[in-house]
């Protein structure tokens, strides 16, 4: 294969390692060794997408359709470790690979026909410049790889909000009011949208984004994240 010798040489000098356990990766492995990939803390929300603990959590706050997540979030667990690397150690490839894996699972259950477009939750331009990429967009690109559904950056974040980490659910909802808007003033003409983010806790950010999309003509907005955490 072209450039295989160069890849082999680079692997000797800068070995690719599993993002979970740190062991050296084989040529066919991406981000995770086969053992760790097989032991990812996968959730099963997509099996009951309209009736699971995530949809129950958001009912009453918005017109909930489907709410799904690839991994279960646990403090000091694998999912938290991966999200930390993704957001703070410049590892965008983790989000792309997780999106690709999740997309494969969703495609097996015929979700491909459920959405017209995948929309990532946007970062504020200052945060985007600081991080260098939008982790939600990388996850969306991975999903697109497997589902064959286009990714569109339809939303903008108008306001630089404070960190949500230590806020209550009500405070988080208030913190993202009127923060998002459409990039271009347009009618979404009944589009079926999959809105994606990195993690869902209270759901405040996703709700704020979804409401903008619904107010501008989307038929329905489903929510998907890399990981789902507690309150």
TrEMBL record:
Domain Phosphoribosyltransferase intervals: 138-229
Any one Pfam family match given in the protein's UniProt record, by short name: Pribosyltran
SUPFAM superfamilies: PRTase-like (SSF53271)
Domain of life (superkingdom): Bacteria
Family as reported in the entry's similarity comment: Belongs to the ComF/GntX family.
Name recorded for this polypeptide: Competence protein ComF
Organism whose genome encodes this protein: Algoriphagus sanaruensis
